[in-house]
Amino acid sequence: MTVELPISMLYAGLLALLYFVLAALVIRLRWRDRVGIGTGESKDLEVAVRIHGNFAEYVPFLLLLLVLMELSGASGMLLHTVGGLLFVARVCHAIGLRMSIGPSWARTVGVLGTFIVLLVQAGYMLGYAMGMLA
Question: Mind telling me which residue stretches traverse the membrane in this protein (predicted)?
């Protein structure tokens, strides 16, 4: 039996490419600053590690929820909205932190976008579960 999840796979692929770029930036800075573990004295590396780490903390869980939404029969429009917003939010978050470790428009868009996705997905999951339990 084959389960097709084209929308989830699209956003998983796009986010995987973004993850690769973030990881490559960390590696490049490790080579440049000759830091094997941790961040040493490099502020650039510290920021890059946090951008990469923040992505790794949020995106796998949000992708899992996207897959569950698609498996449950969520509309394509909803899936594309959530997946697209997640991708844009994560790009903005990375750009925003590279611009400034303080507040920036891009970081704000990234944080708010990520949290909107999380809350929409939580609402969908709870609504779907309550409908199944009724």
Answer: 6-27, 77-97, 109-130
